[in-house]
Automatic annotation (TrEMBL):
<feature type="transmembrane region" description="Helical">
    <location>
        <begin position="136"/>
        <end position="161"/>
    </location>
</feature>
<dbReference type="GO" id="GO:0008381">
    <property type="term" value="F:mechanosensitive monoatomic ion channel activity"/>
</dbReference>
<dbReference type="InterPro" id="IPR012496">
    <property type="entry name" value="TMC_dom"/>
</dbReference>
<feature type="transmembrane region" description="Helical">
    <location>
        <begin position="75"/>
        <end position="94"/>
    </location>
</feature>
<keyword id="KW-0175">Coiled coil</keyword>
<keyword id="KW-1133">Transmembrane helix</keyword>
<feature type="domain" description="TMC">
    <location>
        <begin position="2"/>
        <end position="69"/>
    </location>
</feature>
<dbReference type="GO" id="GO:0005886">
    <property type="term" value="C:plasma membrane"/>
</dbReference>
<keyword id="KW-0812">Transmembrane</keyword>
<comment type="similarity">
    <text>Belongs to the TMC family.</text>
</comment>
<dbReference type="Pfam" id="PF07810">
    <property type="entry name" value="TMC"/>
</dbReference>
<keyword id="KW-0472">Membrane</keyword>
<dbReference type="InterPro" id="IPR038900">
    <property type="entry name" value="TMC"/>
</dbReference>
<protein>
    <recommendedName>
        <fullName>TMC domain-containing protein</fullName>
    </recommendedName>
</protein>
<feature type="coiled-coil region">
    <location>
        <begin position="165"/>
        <end position="192"/>
    </location>
</feature>
<feature type="transmembrane region" description="Helical">
    <location>
        <begin position="24"/>
        <end position="54"/>
    </location>
</feature>
Amino acid sequence: MKKIFGRYEFDLPTNILELVYRQALIWVGTTYCPIIAILSVISSSLIFYIKYIAIMVWGDPPKELYSSSGQTNGFLIFMCLTLFLSASPVWYAITMLPPSCGPHLVNAFVTPFQYTLRMWDVIPAWIDTLPTAPRWALNFAGSAALTVPILIVLLLYAYYLRAVKEKQGQKLRELEAEVKAEREDKKFLMRFYKVQT
């Protein structure tokens, strides 16, 4: 098989961009067809194992080494940007536009949500039909009393991670300076004692 297909080099950035693009399509499509989420788990698992076997059999390691810290931050920023850009039109459609098809469409069927103008209107109407305890829990989960403390904790955690990263960078610079000073000391001692290398 290697003689037929030859060997190829694994291209990390291209594969990550394909994965992010696939994830964006899944995020957008799941709103309109929820079974896409299940199908995407199955197809992503198949694609992963097919690529894994292909890499193990025919793949060569990349010639260019990638910086893990720089690449990771870049890919995370790209992933967040993709999430925002793919979620914005979906969120707008859910909260602002009247549905044109599907289960949220205003139709002649007798349902408790018959007169919804937007897809979002179904959720508060459904919550109002629940018993008291679940209704209170869902209303509390969507209130600022819960979301603001969660956002504060997440921001504090992000600040902590940034501080740890800066401290690790500072320690790394100190160690590099120490190694450089020791190298210079060794060179000086070798010159002083006229040691031949």
